[in-house]
Amino acid sequence: MTGKILQGFDTNKGFKEEADVVIVGSGAAGGCSAAELAEGGLNVVVLEEGGYYTSKDFNQDPATMTGRLYRDAGASVIMGKPNIVFSEGRCVGGSTVINGGMCWRTPEKVLKRWQWEFGLKDLTPEHMEPFFEKVEERIHVAPQHPDTISPGEKRYYDAARKLGYFVNPNRRNQKNCCGSNICIFGCPDNRKQSTLISYIPRAVEHGARVYSDCRVTKILTKSGRAAGVAGKVIDRETGKKSAGFEVKAKIVVLAAGALQTPVLLLNNRLANSSKQVGKNFLCHPNAKAIGIFDEPVYYWRGVHQGHQIHEFIDEGILVAMSGVHPALLAMSFQQYGEESLKVMEQWNNMVCAGTLVDDTTTGTVKAGPFGSALMYYQIDKEETYRLIRGVTIAAEVLFTAGAHTVLLPFRGLEKIHSIDEIPKIYETPIKSEDIELFTVHAMGTTRMGPDPKRFVTNPWGETHDVRNMFVTDAGLIPTSLGVNPQETIMALATRTCSHILENKSRYLDV
Amino acid sequence: MKKNLPDWARRTLLSLIEVVMPRSNEFHPELAEYILEYVDRYVGYFPLLLKIGFPLGLLLLERGTLIFMGKWQGFSKLDIVNRERCVKGWIDSRWQLRRELIRGVKGIVMLAYYSHPDVMEHIEYDIAGHIAEVTAKEFK
Q1: Model ipTM value
Q2: Beta carbons of B82 and B71 less than 8 angstroms apart
Q3: Is A368 an interface residue toward B (CB < 8 Å)?
């Protein structure tokens, strides 16, 4: 079978396919699963709802690129107090095309927690080691070249070290990254090793057929087993659904992400005897603090994120600097009108730092109208405290680096002017709804575990209720990781695929 | 070019843009039109619920002047000072819905404004120059 990538305009009259495996989604989980299974000799079809774009199509215009590469143009909303802005990829390569490329193994203490609390006894560091190694080799996980760190980030790094904090250089999936810092609109010269560059071409080389612009709406089953999927081809220009398609397969792999996979299961009334589909939604909330310096620090002239402060990981707090487009930064500011321009005229004197906190509560994903996902997440008191503490740490580092002002994400306390004013943050009665939040890490909505009453899938990702139907995306992850989830997702997907290949006869001789 | 918002919603949006965008720059009238088209294009990418919700939010802003300010005139008919007062009222509202609606629209207007080449040049963000410079180097 010859592998290829087919786009909506190639298939707008609809199509029928047969394969050993059909994979829904082509991001961290789907792209990785496709390559592993195709290389293992299986006949693979990948269905991606978004379009197929390569670096030739990438540019620096936020509206164009968010429209092309992001679900809902990056403006999805998780409802709660406050609402949380959520962004994820929707294109061939999924969120790996638009993420910052951070790669961290699942921390050992997290794996231990999974063993104790969720009965995932096999998930020891020793068991996971070969999967992490394989992923790191496939996507070329490497430290960042020091010359690609921006002057602003160097200041931030030096200040954190001066404060005695443990700072970890980021490991990223990149080959010779030059720090163009436009990762979130797609790497302009394919240095970031997203699945679009790494896994998908491998899958195609081994015969996989990848269909873009195809939205799966129906999961086919027969006698309690998965039997394929069906859906509609989407017209990329109008967003309207055109012809239908059907892919019959002996194995169905759901890798549409922790928001879309549960919606697909709920709409098909499948795999939910535990009533846990869409529950346990984790979102790793983020808040930011912006330091303004007297002189230009050009924090955007370097890699998107070169380091992370891991000093507070045990408190559930990760602090990092992050380079974004000025338009994206300005849109999250409380300032507008002249005040906004006054702030943004200091763009080259700014450093944007952020904090990500471990979830101490969970939310829900429900099926909304027209196949949409409705997300609810109410941050609790502990997370509110952690977010405030994370922002104060970021502010402390920024002031130590020489900032004269730090802009805060709190309604009612927009800025402070010195390290001595940090206590003001605690003196101000900041409620959860007063914090400006966003996130890019959705997890936990189809979590894995041995008990069919508590978990949607077994420890290998196969759903307890429907045989031959697997989940390989972030929905499997049962608790917050404390670090970026990309490598964990890929390692778990690699593990599931190795299980499928080792038990090929069981799954394929139907 | 196909418009995603009806004319009445575009009128309200333009009136809002005039409040939210920085106005000191000389090029602002053209810029307001540019932002309007940009936001309209962006709305085209929205999911259906937001495509419906966005103009409804603008309708609430337009007609809400009676409830929230005691004025018979719609938002787009108010002078700039009263529009500024109205927007401030939404931003500081006790209703989360009002706050979030204005935050969303304000965010998209800012996105459009700071994506304009003249504005990027004004704040000295030359990403194309930076990319050209660093891609010419070898980082091995």
Answers
A1: 0.92
A2: yes
A3: yes
